[in-house]
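Technical appendix A lists one of the benchmark inputs used to test multi-chain prediction within the project. The record comprises two sequence entries:
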Amino acid sequence: MGVLAMFASPNVYADGSPPPNATEEPQSLMVHVVYLGKAYPEPQPLSLMQTIPADGGVAGAKLGAEEINVTGKFLGRQYALEIAMVPADGDIVARAKEVLATKPSMIVADLGAADLLTLADLPEAANAIILDARTIDDRLRQDDCRRNVFHLLPSRAMRTDALAQFLMLKRWPRWFLLKGVGAQDEAYAADMRRSALRFGGKIVEERTYSYNPGARRVDTGFQQIQTQMPLATQNAPSYDVLVVADEADQFGDYLPYNTYEARPIAGTQGLVATAWHPSFQEYSALQMQHRFTLFAHRDMTERDYAGWLALRIVGEAFIRSGKTEPADLRAFLRSKEFEVAGFKGEGLTFRHWDQQLRQPVLLAQALMVTSMSPQEGFLHQKFLTDTLGFDEPEAKCHLAP
Amino acid sequence: MPSRAMIGSIRALCFVAASFCLVAFEAQASKLFITNERDNTVTVLDGESLSVIKTIPVGERPRGIAITPDHKEVLVCDGDADDITIIDTDTLAVTGTLETGPDPETLALSPAGDIIYVSNENDSMVTVLDKATGKVIARVPVGIEPEGLAVSDDGRIVVDVSESTSMAHFIDTQSWKVIANVLVDTRPRIAEFTPDRKQIWVSSEIGGTVSIIDSASRKVTRKIGFDIAGIRPELITPVGVRFTLDGKTAFVALGRANRVGVIDTANYEVKRYLLVGQRVWQLAFNADGSRLYAVNGLTNDVSVIDVAKLDVLKSVPVGRLPWGIAIKP
């Protein structure tokens, strides 16, 4: 629950009338938001051009907090964002309990699936509102869904559906699926198989590729890669697109122009489904990119977008609902009245069955956004964006109001 | 501006006294000025034939456009050039530029035409310029991503909407202070006074509504929603708003719904949806209000609407990503 606090005077009221008594400070509702993250070890990207920012996600959340405070200042709402980071070997339970003891209005969780469930299942978190700004795991939207968790980023299934729709629109329906050995790679492959079934694609070949990149900063080795990648991709049945499932970026970025046959690459490398891309400029996204670069002095990543979006969701929930109790706010987030603008040309809303944010998904390559799904012609009786991911009839999760 | 029938009779007369009438007709010819965001140009169409008279190079990313009250100049916001291009409406020559501060998206003029108001989209400001000298009179902080501007008849109040803050800000032009902030639905785009000045209509692109704000109380008194058979609600993205001269009918461009909504202002009911091009953005009437022009961003054209019949007559190709429109009577 928010805490009422005396706050420095905004000189106007929401309705524009002057303050009733100039000596009386107007009351402002203070909303306390905690960003709870963990410093997971991140693999170094294969490309020297890619870096993983130390403040990924956090910078987006901080900018989002600044933005909602602009609106809030005019309407008697102030938002305080607290950043709580757990070290890589730290105890998430202890830190989560400390955070929950302060009764934050909402928690932005920058946590992996296991830690997110740990947080969500704490008895103290039963009435919390947790905005998941990191995971893409389907199981958190299916068997392991939780009523106190809202998911902001597109799930893995939404991503493979977004890609599959585009490949079908291009009439490139035959896919060679090359997957890494990680559990996430198998999950991606499973989603790609599901997308193929949904949209009429065909996986003509599926292979597991085990490759240990070892040291990623070496000044030789291209000769070896140039022989290894064709070997990994030769003798396949006729196919249109090589779909790579390599979430840890062990080898996927080596594939373009190195396949045995001349084929485009898509999946976790090549053409990638994502919620945000630094080159995205449609639907006023250009202004967001400018604002973020001024704020953080670097490009805006997908995790920054999720952090930013989380705070915008906090702002919309408080301003539009006029409520402060978690139960009321949760009901509002799940309602038709809630929507948040995220530079996708339409309001974004939560699916009531699994509390996943509905959204169009970008398809981007290194330097450009190529397309945005859902694609033309993929229809749905309610929301076109519900053609992406687990729709209500196939969902294993049906959260109660 | 003469009506179509009048022009017909002028032409008939010209047949008899060609030289004199030719001059008279030229002086009266109306012109349409359309900004092409992608092309960095302004397309000038002849108001009668709708043929392209000239394509004028301007600064980078032209969007907002307005004509001076004396109709002698058209001003164009060049978003990425941080300035305004001034175009002479007779010679169609670029006669100058004015510096505006970062990323000017839209502009509006005072009733006398001596003051220019500019929304600086990237730094949450409204910049106030003296038109004669180009000097900055004031910089007024508003919400994030300011866009549409509307000026009251007496010039005392400027309404600016900020997209990312979802508010209409009322700026007092004596003190240059924001005196009221009105929350509207998500991502407001345009503010427009009704002809009787009693209301301000604000379109909300993502909210999918038009909020009606009472000018006196500065409160939202009503919201108008749109419901189009076969169109997803999330694709209904209102932007441009215009009223007929008598104030009885409002036209609202509905963006990705590819339609213009026609609203009866007596009962606020949407009585018709007119199919136009893709991502319809801004609207403008000709001088006598018989034609409404709708600028379609993704189909690179302008739809011509017969206002009396509520009929879309034709579409006219212009440059790439057309955005705004101003009309010289």
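The domain at 38-157 of chain B is CATH 2.130.10.10 (Methylamine Dehydrogenase; Chain H). The radius of gyration of chain B is 19 Å. Comparable benchmark entries are summarised in Table A2.
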